[in-house]
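Exercise 3.2. Students should predict the tertiary structure of the chain below and write it as structure tokens, then compare their answer with the key that follows.

Predict this chain's 3D structure.
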Amino acid sequence: MNKNTCLFVIQISQSRSFYAVYMGGPIFFMKKYMVWLISALMAVSMTACSNTQKKDTKDQAQITTAAKENETQTEAAKTTSKKEKKNEKKNFEVMEKVEHYVMEHISEDFKREDIANALYFNPSYLSHIFKAETGISLNKFINQLRIKEAKRLFDTTNLSVGTVAMDTGYYNFSYFSKQFKEIYHMTPSEYKKTSGNG
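Answer key:
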């Protein structure tokens, strides 16, 4: 069964049990299904076990207990879902702040510790949530933004390769060239020639 499938087993009497399956859908529909199921079962149990009022009361209590347990589980799922959405929103905001910081300081030589300090995060924690949200490391993301900005500069200006490297925070030309080639499959000089500004 998937996480949206519920199996309800309700014992009507010692010799009879009723099985019902709810196959997914919004929680709202599950609640409506439970209300219908409980009222139908109560009617069945009252006619089937009408010989003693004690059995009816016991059966109704079992149905009510099952419904309350299901409602408790539903509320717990809602609470978890709200927390997950809040964390997703918070993490998205952190990602935006990281990108903003990188773009503001793109020509500077900075490290993840500098970003973490500016955003009031522990560097390890920041790296962890960044990797969890994006699937790449924070350092790789920084390099991708820098190389993307370098490409933009090659496309829109007539700056030299060395100037573009320094304007995007690379002070080691061979490392800049290696990072650029890794993403665009050609050296910065080759790209500059093909961009029409070389």
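Discussion points: The mean pLDDT is 76. The beta strands are 5-11, 17-23.
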